[in-house]
Amino acid sequence: MARSKNHRKYSSGFNASARQAAQMLLLKPTMWRLLKVHVHGQSNLDDLQGACVVFANHSSHLDTPLIYGALPRRISKFLAAGAAQDYFYDKWWKSGPMTLFFNGYPIDRGKDDGPGKRNVRGLSGALLDEGVPLLIFPEGSRSRTGAMGPFKHGVASLCISRKVPAVPIALIGAHDAWPSSQKGLPKGRPSVHVIIGHPMTPYPGEIAHEFSERMRRRVLELHDGTARAYGARTLEEYARSAALEAANRTELPEDPQPEEK
C-alpha cells in the first residue's frame, strides 16, 4: 500500500529519533523527578512485534507521559497517541507538544462540527495499516473522579478489523497525584504504578462490544490487584466514592419538623 504524505510523518525515522531524544532528555526525567514511578510487567511485551493498540484507564494528564516512559523503546519509538481534536488541536501551543513528545494525531470525538474542522475519521485505521502502533484511551476523556468510565467500542473495533493486538495498561495513583481540579503540578513525589499486561487478541467471532468489555475488565483486574498489594485505592473504591458524592448532591433535604405549639 502506498503511503499517504499526510501519514508518512508518523512513521518517519528522523522524527522518531528527535522525539525519543525529547522524551529521554526532557519528558521522562521531569516525570520521574515529580513522581516515584514503579513499572510492572515490561517483560509481557517481549514477543510483541508490529502494530498494536495500547490502551489504559485515563484520569490524569500524567497518563500519557507515564505510558511512554514505561514502555520499551522499540514500542514507544513510533507510538502515536490519539488526542481529542476539539481539545488538543484547537491551539498550536497544545498541538505542538503532542507532536514533539507523543507523535500525536487528532481523534474526532464528535463534539465540534465547525466549518474549519479537519476530517480525521479513519486516521487511526490508516496508521495501523502502515504499521504504526497507537495509544488510545477508550474512555474518551479523563475521569474527573478517578473511577473508570465505560469504554467506547472504537479501540476494540480497530483491533478486530486490523487484526492487531491490544496492550492493556493500568495506571495507579496518577489521579491522586494530579487530578483535573488541581492547577499546580504534583508535589511531594507521590507514588504511581504503571502495570503492563499481556497483549490481548479478539476471540474468533468476538464482536466489538464483547472484546471492549473484556479489555475493560482486564484493566480493572490489573489495577485493583496491584493497588491492593500496595495499599492504594482501587477503581472500585473510586467508583464507590463517586456514587456516594453523586447521591449526596441529589439527596432531597428532610422535611422540616413542625414546631411544637
From TrEMBL:
It comes from the Bacteria. One of its GO terms (molecular function) is 1-acylglycerol-3-phosphate O-acyltransferase activity. SUPFAM superfamilies: Glycerol-3-phosphate (1)-acyltransferase (SSF69593). One of its GO terms (biological process) is phosphatidic acid biosynthetic process. Residues 52-174 form the Phospholipid/glycerol acyltransferase domain. Keywords: Acyltransferase, Transferase. InterPro entries: Plipid/glycerol_acylTrfase. This is 1-acyl-sn-glycerol-3-phosphate acyltransferase. It comes from Arachnia propionica.
